[in-house]
Amino acid sequence: MDAQAPYFIGTTIDGYIAAPGGDFDFFTPHITEDYLPFLTTEFADALPTPGRAALGIADTPNTRFDTVVMGRGTYDPGLAMGLTSPYAQLRQIVFSGSLATGPDPAVEVTDEDPLTLVRKLKQEDGLGIWLCGGADLAGQLLPEIDELIVKQYPIVAGTGIPLFRADFSPYTFRLADSRVFEGGNVVLTYAKASD
Question: Would you say residue 91 lies in a domain?
């Protein structure tokens, strides 16, 4: 069975995944008592390796994803804190035209066309290919995104980095699931609509 490529991302109500400078710490206070267990059971694959260890789920087998793809802007914040392999439980691919090699052998750095590479990855058997971010990469990969899993936090940012940066080209998705949590967080799952 071919792998799927979901975009699993946190956003504000007004559609921003990070502050203008890339910071996303403002989401953290909205991790409520009912929301954290949801993340650790449903999306443990997508938790950073140190977070999995701290939560006692470091050895939990992957169930949704076996690969993560991200742009350099998404990879750099962890790297700045010394986290060279943020998702050690996954195959990690960073798209960058300026980073020649990764600082960790567990992280593949490539300047290959993201759309071409993700299409190849989708032909392989395995679990999902998690598009971790950012907006430019998401915009490039939009034709190959099978599912949007949007963790919407009860925040209005006003400005910042949007969910997607791309030319105007509407794609239709249908709401497949929604979950509401006590702190106002909502997880919306959209499946790509059939053509």
Answer: yes
Confidence bin at 160 (pLDDT 50/70/90): very high
pLDDT of res. 91: 96
> d(Cα 33, Cα 181) in Å, to the nearest integer?
9
| Cis amide bond preceding 22, omega within 30 | no
Sign of the alpha-carbon torsion through 133, 165, 30, 64: negative
Tokens at 132, concatenated? 């971790």
Q: For residue 94, what are the domain limits?
A: 6-192
1 inside domain: no
The pLDDT value given to residue 150 = 97
Q: What is the pLDDT at residue 3?
A: 81
Rounded to whole angstroms, the Cα distance separating 188 from 23 reads 22
Asked if residue 66 is part of any domain, the answer here is: yes
Domain count, the chain: 1
Closest among 192, 69, 187, 52 to 134, alpha carbons compared: 69
68 in a structural domain: yes
CB 115 within 8 A of CB 143: yes
160 vs 98: which has the higher pLDDT: 160
